[in-house]
Amino acid sequence: MSPRLLLLAFFVVAGAWAGEIPLEQRRSGYDLMSRETQKIQDDDATNPGMLWVLDGEALWSARAGTANRSCADCHGDAKASMKGVAARYPALDATRGKLLNLEQRINACRVDRQKASPLPYESKELLALEAYVARQSRGLPIAPKIDAKTKPFLEAGKEAFHRRQGQLNLSCAQCHDDHWGKKLAGSVIPQAHPTGYPIYRLEWQNLGSLERRLRNCVFGIRAQVPDLGSEELVDLELYLMWRARGMRLETPGVRP
Amino acid sequence: MTSRREFLVLAAAASALPATAKAQIDPNLVANRKAAFQAALKNIVGDAKVTPGRVKLTLPPLIDNGNSVPLSVSVESPMTQADHVKAIHVLTEKNPLPDVVSFALGPRAGRAGFSTRVRLADTQTVTAIAQMSDGSFWSDHAEVVVTLSACLEDGLI
Amino acid sequence: MARAVVTVPPRAKRGEIVEIKTLAQHSMETGFRRTQNGELIPRDIIRTFTCSYNGVEVCRVELHPAIAANPLIAFTTVATESGALTFRWDGDNGYTVTEIAPIKVE
Q: Taking CA atoms, what residue in A is nearest to C6?
């Protein structure tokens, strides 16, 4: 084989190899942070995310809607009933036949059971409830349920993750599978695992959902930003959770 | 996502705003901020001399995000009625305002020191001043490198 | 729902240094940010924080816009007698929060 052909063959094969991160090489964004920022997350007394967890705890027992019911009225003590829940979301809602993320699940309960209006995406109340529920899964392995019913959503999310898009014609995979650990404009590229959502992001100076973070990324590569709660984003959330399967949930995470 | 038409309308509206409303960069930014720092320092110490020492200002040398930087100050002091720290002040040279925080210690204060999280607008030197019960002033400073996030986002998304 | 969290050890030995950590939920709007239309978002910050131990001041803090959002203020006091620690945050637009934490000294 001529040297040129050999070189071409090498790149074709190397391109085919560049794929998912081997399971044992996966690292949470926590590991990339400075020791000082890690300490902010580690201590409940200094973690700003805990402010929302406490708000969520209060909302959990607050009666709402025309049904005048609180989450506690059906679900009792969240420490018991919500343990493991956030670790397996997004999940399929059998009645709706739709994949729902945790925010959508909380709103579905509000509408169906409490007969209350849904809380707006990224609102303080919805984030507080989400943070409180997800906090009950802290330390547990991420484990979304993948079966015949959820596989199509997973495939759609996987396709979105690998699709080149926007003015910069970049796919998520190119940065987060192929070039994680390298630097981009002074910051280290993380592997992008949703290990701490909803996170207190220093850049936002606020708590925010995974969807907010995904929209920031898509904006950054100059592509059309999907709406909050859109199917495209929820499918992508499922793929990311599956990609992070087995990794521990750190909610409420702190990230730069 | 604003359409082209929306963008043009917004641009026209923005140019119709009075000059004070528009974001304009001060051409003497560095000099003015340095002067503001000196004024703030004088406001605290007056004409008294500030001696480097006895104060320990701790900041991470390289920080993840300038929006929230852990900062702590501790001062060597017996903390007795006769000899104690009255207040600790933190100042910056490159933030829009020089004052960061002033921590006044009351009769029930424990160790002379505190921790908080601050905003730093740029790579710069941060200064901590301790005001003692005998009227003397002591200081420490720390240099911090501030890096920006990779993908610049509209903070309002 | 203005929230603040204080972390104080519930009991301490007489003469012991006690670590206190406080967190207040507040955006600490600097007054330097602008909307997409270029208008300044007005300053809205916590201005002062005080802590008293059985009515005697532990510290009085003056906060400026350079304090990060959701401010953490951590400091110490000396455990002398049982009682209560009172924490108070005051800020722009009538913001005021008070938290009380008991302390048992043995």
A: A45
Domain ranges (residues) in chain A: 25-44+142-255, 49-135
Q: What is the ipTM of this complex?
A: 0.95
Sign of the alpha-carbon torsion through A202, A204, A210, A216: negative
* Angstrom distance (rounded) from CA A162 to CA B70: 37
3-state secondary structure of A219: helix
Note the pLDDT of residue B123. 87
Q: What is the mean pLDDT of residues A177-200?
A: 92
Give the one of C64, C72, C77 whose C-beta lies nearest to B110's C-beta: C77
Minimum CA–CA partner of B121 in chain C: C66
Q: Is the pLDDT of residue A13 over 50?
A: no
Cβ of C56 within 8 Å of Cβ of B108? The answer is yes
- Chain A residues in contact with B155 (beta carbon < 8 A): 203-204
Average pLDDT, chain B: 84
How close A133 gets to chain B, by Cα (Å)?
Answer: 24
Q: Which CATH number fits domain B27-146: 2.60.40.1180, 3.40.50.2300, 2.60.40.2470, 3.30.1330.40?
A: 2.60.40.2470
**Quick count: other Cβ atoms within 10 Å of Cβ A3?**
7
Q: Does A55 touch chain C (CB under 8 A)?
A: yes
Mapped onto helix, strand or coil, the DSSP state of residue A28 is coil
CATH of A25-44+142-255, one of 3.40.640.10, 1.10.760.10, 3.40.50.300, 1.20.1540.10: 1.10.760.10
Residues of chain C in contact with residue A52, where contact means CB-CB under 8 angstroms, are 25
Going from the C-alpha of A119 to that of each of A98, A104, A196, B153, the distances in angstroms are: 19, 9, 22, 25
Nearest-CA distance B70 → chain A (Å):
7
User: What pTM was estimated for this model as a whole?
Assistant: 0.88
Show the domains of chain C with their CATH numbers: 4-105 (2.60.40.10)
B-to-C residue pairs, Cβ atoms closer than 8 angstroms: 116
How confident is the model over A56-65, as a mean pLDDT? 97
Residues B110 and B59 sit within 8 Å (Cβ to Cβ): no
Q: In the CATH hierarchy, which fold is given to the domain comprising A49-135?
A: Cytochrome Bc1 Complex; Chain D, domain 2 (1.10.760)
Q: Do A256 and B153 touch (CB under 8 A)?
A: no
Q: pLDDT digits over C8-66, tens only? A: 998 999 999 999 999 999 999 999 888 888 888 999 999 999 999 999 999 999 999 99
Q: Which of C1, C25, C72 sits opposite A46 (nearest CB)?
A: C72
Residue pLDDT, tens place only, B118-129: 999 888 999 999
